[in-house]
Amino acid sequence: MSAGPIVSIAGVAKRFGTVVAVDGVDLDIQRGELFALLGGSGCGKTTLLRMIAGFETPDTGHVLIDGQDMTGVPPHRRPVNMMFQSYALFPHMDVAANVGYGLRREGLPASEIARRVGEALDQVRLGDHGKRRPAQLSGGQRQRVALARALIKRPKLLLLDEPLAALDRKLREGTRFELVRLQEQLGLTFVMVTHDQEEAMSMAGRLAVMNEGRIAQVGTPHEVYEHPRSRFVADFIGIANILPVDGGRAWLALRPEKIALFAARPSTDHAEQGCIVEIAYEGDRSLYRVALTDGSTLLVSTANIARHPREPWPRGQQVWLGWAADAGQRLEE
Amino acid sequence: MRLVIALPYLWLATFFLLPFALVLAIAFGVNNPDAVPPVDLGVSLKNFRLLFTDDLYLAAWLGSLRIAAASTVLCLLLGYPMAYAIARARPGLRPLLLMAVILPFWTSFLIRVYAWMGLLASNGILNQFLRATGLVDNPGTILGTEWAVHLGIVYAYLPFMVLPVYAALEKLDTSLLEAAADLGASPLVAFLTVTLPQSLPGILAGCLLVFIPAVGEFVIPDLLGGTGTLMIGKVLWDEFFLNSDWPLASAVAICLLVLLVGPIALFQRQQAKNLERQ
């Protein structure tokens, strides 16, 4: 085992007809990390994942897995396994046969396959469901069968295509933590594709934000959120006020929660006066849209710490906004 | 509303059950060439006894089953790759290819079988071609042999194999094949463990749609086969039209029906099981 990155993508591009899906991507994914490819639909994240799995061939560039060039290596000879968005469980096989499929391809003895299938099913809490058909399972159970099937060969790298998209919201939150726990326990590298920034931020150790076939920024969730490099990233991850600075020659991204509301002119580095025009109450926090005297508007977010705040901010209220000198991030592009 | 539901039953009763009851009654009668129709009704088992004791009928039964089974296997071997190719073709091309499979139905079945006679005769188009090109100097005649019967049945019933197999393959989710490849299955293994089992209902439907009518086939063995080709459909025809033995012909028809109910029931059960699974 070499010490370099587990996946190394160099100058990879892919087009379908006239549509450019991936447009020159360079990316290294380190051993043992949970890496997320994040972006809207059509940004090329799924194509990139499918090129790692071997289902698509790059037009140019190379994909290296564990230092080995994967050019010309078909999917069934790659040391990776994938969990499909639709799960792709074999409907004519029961759960145990689905999970054991990969081991049967290796020609292992039946007793060892049975033992490892049993372990894998226990790991995803489906120990007594081996004889069921996929059609007899709930969505959450199917997702766990797909996970067990993809993990049973102990791949160097597990690819997850929108692993939580088909689950309902409550189940999704619990499953997030379960996936992270499993990844840490097994010490594997996970690469997941998601369009859900909350999912990527809460699960991934590092993530790549993709846009129009290119990688807009790579970093930890904290880096990407607090130090967005471009207007696209600042806008895509969370909410950002984009303000002109230096007389309109550069832009500053200012997160709504970095701005505070005051009744009187505060002593912060920056202070602006404005009028509340809209309030979105979200329970744990409220989002205010404040019109400034120069005609522009700023979004301000405050945590609702007290159940009965002494100073509620009603609509139409004249307020002062204040933020520190280092509250915003200067954008490079 | 009730009438609409009753109509198909009425149709079945008038045009299937009633004639079937007539055939059943005649099968238990005795042949009488002087009567009109040439039968004395009764409860005689003479016709059935003859069917199970006379070697001619036994040979005809076995001949029918053997030819139908072999033709079904040939149809499957030829039809499966065709259906597979159509299902894997560009979506825009598929209707055209399917149309090509169905196109022969636009011409009368009888005329198409006669066309084969013209092709396979001793100085037919095939042999003329073989002689003219010098490939074979003294070609034998295919017409009048069992080969011609197989050829005719495979030609005539191929669409009944292609269409149900295509329907099964077209439904196949391609991500299942990707999942198989991802788990280490080569394309051949993925075909054997995923595509083939998933298309099994289509294969079964196609085999029965070819086998059942092929067993009772009369036109093809009569026109393309020789005197050596013994099939039960031809025996039935001969008893009825040449010997005017209506009771014996009816007994053959009843036996044929009973024989084919088995595979049809099997097919129905499989279909019901598939529905249940989905």
What does this structure look like?
The complex is a heterodimer of chains A (about 325) and B (about 280). Chain A has about 325 residues and is α+β, with helices and mostly antiparallel strands. Chain A has two domains: about 5-230, P-loop containing nucleotide triphosphate hydrolases (Rossmann fold); about 245-330, OB fold (Dihydrolipoamide Acetyltransferase, E2P) (Beta Barrel), CATH 2.40.50. Chain A has helices at about 45-55, 95-105, 110-125, 140-150, 170-185, 195-205, 220-225, 230-235; strands at about 5-15, 20-30, 35-40, 60-65, 70, 80-85, 155-160, 190-195, 205-210, 215-220, 240-245, 250-255, 260, 270-280, 285-290, 295-305, 320-325, 330. Chain A has a six-stranded mixed β-sheet, with helices on both faces. The longest helix of chain A has 18 residues, at about 170-185. Chain A is elongated. Chain A starts with 6 loop residues before the first strand and ends with a strand. The model of chain A has no long low-confidence stretch (mean pLDDT about 95). Chain B has about 280 residues and is mainly α. Chain B has a domain at about 70-230: MetI-like (MetI-like fold, Orthogonal Bundle). Chain B is built from 13 helices and two strands, in the order αββαααααααααααα. In chain B, strands 1-2 form a two-stranded antiparallel sheet. Chain B is globular, with a radius of gyration of 23 Å. The interface of A and B includes residues 55, 76, 92 and 149 of A.
